[in-house]
Design goal:
Chains A, B: GO terms for molecular function: DNA binding. Chains A, B: It comes from Nocardiopsis codii. Chains A, B: Keywords: DNA-binding, Transcription, Transcription regulation. Chains A, B: InterPro entries: HTH_LacI, LacI/GalR-like_sensor, Lambda_DNA-bd_dom_sf, Peripla_BP_I. Two copies of one chain form a homodimer. Chain A is α/β, with parallel strands linked by helices. The first copy, chain A, folds into three domains: 39 residues, lambda repressor-like DNA-binding domains (434 Repressor (Amino-terminal Domain), Orthogonal Bundle), CATH 1.10.260.40; 133 residues, Response regulator (Rossmann fold); 134 residues, Response regulator (Rossmann fold, 3-Layer(aba) Sandwich). The first copy, chain A, contains 14 helices and twelve strands. The structure holds a DNA duplex.
Chain lengths: 337, 337
DNA sequence: CCCGAGTTGTATAACGATGTAAAATCTGCC
DNA sequence: GGCAGATTTTACATCGTTATACAACTCGGG
């Protein structure tokens, strides 16, 4: 098939290893030898066979990034950032999606593709702590996102309670009183949404706002459709919130759509805050106020943490890294200037 | 590191090759031998080392999909579909983005990662015909998307002229007279946008609508931002179209945003048609009429064409495959029911 | 002129799998 | 029992690379 070290070696009249040395920039090679070999390399257009290199080295130079959905712009944008950053460090990123289903997440954590990748960045939704503890694979794993686990793995996530508090506080600040929450998750104490819900609850109670269960809408997933349906249910049940804090921007977009259908104005009748700062929110007919996690910082932290573990011989204690976030106020809360 | 055939062979008291035979389902193995080996495999949790297998076989079992931007939902959704379909055929998909820059596209076409992947599905934007003809790599290549080339590669694309005609005809049908086009591309006869522009021109002239250059807005890229700016330029130049056909949904979303800012109503003042049928358009405050290419069919056709070439010994003549499309009418042209 | 230290280059053995060809074993039948 | 013919199993080479260990060469100093 391709041109191998052997071909180059033969043509240049040196041993295979010498060519390898030139390719790898090994020090002890005479300038003339190096030049001669290099010329042949260029002539033949030699390119190292990564498969063979990886077999020999026991590393593949690939890491996987498994997110719930690529269709969710937040993850697409995050993936972009990870790919970019990893490429700069000579790592290839294999992108995968779990559909947010536990069985898929377990599969990845267990080491699906273990022999193809050196390590994994996983953004779980349904994964349980026990799944992590029962992990068979010993490939480095970095967890991404809001869920909390008691397992010895690096974990990158912004402070979700604080972020949710910021969002809720903003709604209080602009004078809203009946503030709903969309995107809760039934019966999962560790679930992603839990912390954002907690931040909301704290602010509600601190500022004397109602925080009853009737103001909390659970969803199956985190899509626009889920948001639209939840908003509709909320309104149908007779609750008339004057603001909604949504688990993420997609849900907020869905909620906004339902409000438009019902003839309710944003923010005049109902103010909206989302989470993620996806580009879509910046171009909605009513632009979306949102909590913006520092995606680039998250991507960098996750990649660096993983590669550090790949490189590091000694054991490193599992770390918890909290990148920053910022509240971006737009029309869905403060109206058009 | 891991468990190899050798370990299993030793433990089971057979040769390495026999274990390999069991793993690969080779026929001539005694049921008892097979069972004994299988038990040891399960016991030790053996999993084949794909890197080694690939080295030996000369194939990696991976294909790459290179799209302009993962942040563009159309490509994210398409990628989802390709990954899904390829997984069913035991192929792993490596996702990449070119940024729509010619140098990047050339890099991929030339065989960047050639030794890592068996074949490539490329969705080019700026790539020129000469780049393809000068291609060094001999790895199978399938082209995706609207650009047309005279090069011997499979090409998957819907009939863009026909699709554009459908969209334009729809705007005519609802009685619009000054129909603008946003998303043209300066000075590139082969450019992606060219065919959609042509379809628009044809319908305009056939129905006696103006089709002057003042109604055509060029953009640098295909983002929401590009759409917003182009719409603003159009309005600022004194043109007051009563409809706009946008190169894609993202541009349409941007245009819609500008219209909202200027206090113009959709579709009453200006009707809008996009292209791609991204989910975002279904949840905009005013839902977006759009041309919906059959993404799943495209993904399947591209993957199948590539894998067929990978499997096929004999030469196959380059094919041009045209998946279907459909016009989806929503509020941005027909208003709310 | 020889010796040790340092530099440069090579032969060979892995990495973990599969393909080939030959060896070992099992049939059935005379 | 022995032999042809089929079946089952094995030993060994191989894919393209890097690591190891050693051979060859250079150089300065005694």
């Amino acid at each position: 098939m391709g041109i191998s070290l052997k071909d180059v070696a033969q043509r240049a009249g040196v041993s295979i290893k010498t060519v390898s040395n030139v390719v790898n920039g090994y020090r002890h090679v005479t300038p003339e030898t190096r030049q001669r070999v290099q010329r042949v390399i260029d002539e033949l257009g030699y390119r190292p066979n990564l498969t063979a290199r990886h077999l020999r080295k026991g590393r593949t130079g690939m890491i996987a990034l498994a997110v719930p959905e690529l269709g969710n712009p937040y993850f697409a944008e995050l993936a972009d950032a990870v790919i970019e950053h990893a490429a700069g460090l000579d790592y290839i990123v294999l992108l995968d999606h779990t559909g947010g289903r536990r069985d898929q997440e377990v599969l990845f954590a267990q080491g699906f593709r273990a022999r193809v990748i050196d390590g994994l960045i996983l953004s779980p939704i349904e994964l349980e702590n026990e799944d992590l503890l029962a992990r068979g694979s010993d490939a480095p794993l970095v967890l991404l996102g809001e869920r909390q686990y008691d397992a010895p793995y690096d974990h990158i996530a912004i402070d979700n309670v604080a972020a949710a508090r910021t969002a809720a506080a903003h709604l209080v600040e602009i004078g809203r009183r009946r503030i709903a929450f969309i995107g809760a998750r039934h019966g999962r104490a560790r679930a992603t949404a839990h912390q954002r819900l907690r931040g909301w609850r704290e602010v509600m109670s601190e500022t004397g706002r109602p925080a009853g269960e009737d103001l909390v809408a659970a969803t199956d997933g985190y899509t626009r459709e889920d948001g639209a349906q939840a908003m509709a249910r909320l309104l149908d049940s007779g609750i008339r919130p004057d603001a909604v804090f949504c688990y993420n921007d997609l849900i907020a977009v869905g909620a906004m759509r339902t409000l438009a259908e019902r003839g309710l104005r944003v923010p005049d009748d109902v103010a909206l805050v989302g989470f993620d700062d996806i580009e879509e929110g910046r171009y909605a007919a009513t632009t979306l106020t949102t909590v913006a996690p520092h995606k680039r910082a998250i991507a960098r932290a996750a990649t660096d943490a993983l590669l550090e573990r790949l490189a590091g011989e000694g054991e490193i204690a599992p770390r918890r890294i909290q990148p920053g976030f910022a509240l971006v106020t737009r029309e869905s809360t403060v109206g058009r200037p």
